[in-house]
Amino acid sequence: MIQVRHGVADDARAAVAVWSAANDGSGPPGHADRLLVWAVDPDAVLVIAVEASTTVGMVLLLAGRADDGAGPLLPELGHLTGLAVHPEYRRQGIGTQLLIEAKQAALDAGRTRITAWVRDHNQVALDLFARHGFAPTGRTATDSAGTAMVLLEASGDEDAPPV
Ligand SMILES: CC(C)(COP(=O)(O)OP(=O)(O)OC[C@H]1O[C@@H](n2cnc3c(N)ncnc32)[C@H](O)[C@@H]1OP(=O)(O)O)[C@@H](O)C(=O)NCCC(=O)NCCS
Asked: For the chain, what are the domain ranges?
């Protein structure tokens, strides 16, 4: 049975190994190292999916900052990065559960805006984010691997049950 929970510092290495396996070398150079640093940042929330004692998925909620992460902290902003499910565990709803849990973590931390960069040809991820209220902001960029990215944004309460 898959359990989705917040990770601790000791979970970071296994989580980032899943990200590396999920991206099969296609991620931007050095991103796995950045994820390892961010995963143990006390302002970040690491969300992992675990089966028995094996980590099979991850996503990171980072404290939002102005200027694409270079500026001052923005308390209302959260930023998602590193969403990944191990190839052998896909299409079981794990990515969906990770996204829901990360959005809830954002909401719990008072972060009402959540952003994420997604590769513009990654239709699976674009559709997944769209189903959870993320829409294109109109901003695009090219990552350090030369891949075109689009910036998506959602408000934190899109998955909340209707009142
Ligand atoms: C994107 C990713 C996290 C989705 O993980 P997942 O656990 O398969 O997601 P889910 O099982 O919750 O699938 C959600 C829906 O996405 C769609 N989907 C998932 N994998 C798909 C595929 N290979 N082809 C087509 N649609 C797919 C389906 O609609 C699926 O629901 P369904 O199977 O009930 O129809 C995973 O494919 C992955 O790790 N990809 C590589 C890394 C990546 O692209 N991360 C996103 C960076 S922003």
From this structure: 2-112
CA of 49 to the centre of ligand 1 (A): 14
User: What are residue 15's DSSP bridge partners?
Assistant: none
Asked if residues 104 and 61 have their Cβ atoms less than 8 Å apart, the reply is no
- Which has more pLDDT, 144 or 130? 130
Radius of gyration of the chain (CA): 15
Q: What is the pLDDT of residue 160?
A: 57
Q: Which residues are 73's β-sheet partners?
A: 65
pLDDT in tens, 61-92: 999 999 988 999 999 999 999 999 999 999 99
Measured from the CB, is residue 8 less than 6 Å from ligand 1? no
Say whether pTM exceeds 0.85.
yes
The CATH number of the domain covering residues in 2-112:
3.40.630.30
Q: What percent of the chain clears pLDDT 90, i.e. is strictly above it?
A: 86
Q: How would DSSP label each residue in 11-62?
A: GHHHHHHHHHHHHTT-SPTTHHHHHHHHHT-TT-EEEEEEETTEEEEEEEEE
Tell me the CA–centroid distance for residue 91 and ligand 1, in Å.
6
Collapsed DSSP state (helix, strand, coil) of residue 80: strand
